[in-house]
Amino acid sequence: MIVYNTVEDIVRICRENNMLFWQVIMRADAQERMVSEDISFAAMREMYRAMKRADSEYDKNLKSPSGLSGGDGEKMRIFNSTGNNLCGAFMGLAMEKAIKMGESNACMKRIVAAPTAGACGVIPAVFLSYETCFNAPEDKMVEAMFITAGIGAVIAKNASIAGASGGCQAEIGSASSMAAAGLAYLQGGDAECIAHAMAFALKNMLGLTCDPVCGLVEVPCIKRNSAGAVNAISSAQMAMAGIRSAITPDEVIDSMRRIGNAMPSCLKETGEGGLAITPSAQRIKETLQ
User: Fold this and answer.
1) Contact 125/94 with Cβ under 8 angstroms?
2) pLDDT, tens only, 233-269
3) Which residues are CB-neighbours of 96 under 8 A, at least 6 positions away?
4) Which residues lie below 8 Å from residue 29, measured CB to CB, with a gap of 6+?
5) What are phi and psi of 5, to 5 degrees?
6) 268 and 212 Cβ atoms separated by less than 8 Å
7) Residue 40's closest CA among 49, 48, 51, 31?
8) What is the pLDDT of residues 10-33, one digit of tens each?
9) Alpha-carbon distance 173 to 234, whole Å?
C-alpha cells in the first residue's frame, strides 16, 4: 500500500521503488479508491479534458453579475497577437488563459477547481499553454496532472488550500506550486527537481492575503491567477537550471500553515482588510448596493 503524507515521502518512494513521481500518486489513488490504475488514469484524463472544455468555451462577451469582470482575457489575447508581449508566446498565452478561466468562474461557467474555484486558472493556464506551444502528447499532460494532485494533497493535509483559513497564499500559492511541479516534470525534471520547483513557487507566494473586494472572487483574484501562472513557470525554470531551495519543500508548506494561522482574520476572505477596504473598493461597493 502506497501512503504519502509529505513531499519527501513521495520523493523517497520514487527513489526506493524506481518509480516516477506521477506513478506514485496514481498508484496511491487507485489503491485508495480500489480501482485499477487504468481507471485512475482515465479519471484524471477526464479532469484534464474538462479544463480544455472550460478554456475553449470562454465567452469574451460575458460579464459577471457584479460587472467587475469579463472581457479582460480577450484583451490579453489581442495584445498577445500584436507580438509586443515581452513574455514570449508561452508565458503570454498562460497569462491569457489564466485570466480567461478566472473570468469564466466569475461568470458562473463550468470550471475545474484546482485546488479551488478562486485559483482555477493557474494549472490549466500553464498546462494547456504548454501542450499548445510544445505539442506535448495528452498522456504526458495527464501524468503531470497526477503530480499536481499529489502536491495539492500534501499541502491540504499539512497546511491549507482555503483562503478563509490560510489567505490567498493557500489558494493561488498552492495552485502555483502545483503547476510548477507539473511543469518541471513536463520538461524532464526528476522527483527532486519537481519538489524544488514546488518549493520555489510556494515560497514566492508566502504571506499573500485574501482580500476580495465586496467579498466576490473577482478583484483581485482573477489577475492573481495570471501572476500565479507566471510564478509557476519561473519557479520551474529555476529548478530545471539546477537551483535548489535552501528551505526544504515540506518546511515551506509548514511555513505557509504557520503564516496563515498568524494572519489576522481581516486578511482571510472576510473582505474587511487589504484591497477590500480601499477607497476604490468602497466606491465599487456603493455601486453594487
Assistant:
1) yes
2) 999 999 999 999 999 999 999 999 999 999 999 999 9
3) 73, 76, 77, 80, 125
4) 40, 146, 149
5) -120, -15
6) no
7) 31
8) 999 999 999 999 999 999 999 999
9) 14
Q: How far apart are the first and last CA of the chain?
A: 55
Orientation angle between helical segments 138-158 and 7-17, nearest 10 degrees: 130
Whether this model's pTM surpasses 0.90: yes
Strand partners, 210: 268
Q: In the predicted model, what is the mean pLDDT of residues 161-171? A: 98
Residue 68 CA to residue 284 CA, distance in Å, equals 9
The residues pairing with 268 across neighbouring beta strands, listed in sequence order, are 210
| Contact (Cβ atoms closer than 8 angstroms) between residue 96 and residue 197 | no
Distance CA 7, CA 257 (A): 15
d(CA 193, CA 241): 9
- Phi, psi for 111 (deg, rounded to 5): -135, 170
Domains and CATH numbers, the chain: 19-288 (1.10.4100)
Q: Determine the Cα–Cα distance for residues 226 and 155; give it in Å rounded to an integer.
A: 21
- pLDDT tens per residue, range 97-145: 999 999 999 999 999 999 999 999 999 999 999 999 999 999 999 999 9
pLDDT at residue 289, rounded to an integer: 82
Q: Where are the alpha helices (DSSP H) in the chain?
A: 7-17, 21-33, 37-56, 72-81, 88-106, 122-134, 138-158, 163-166, 172-186, 191-205, 221-240, 249-262, 279-288
Contact 85, 92 (CB under 8 A): yes
Could you report the per-residue pLDDT of 62-78, keeping only the tens digit for each? 999 999 999 999 999 99
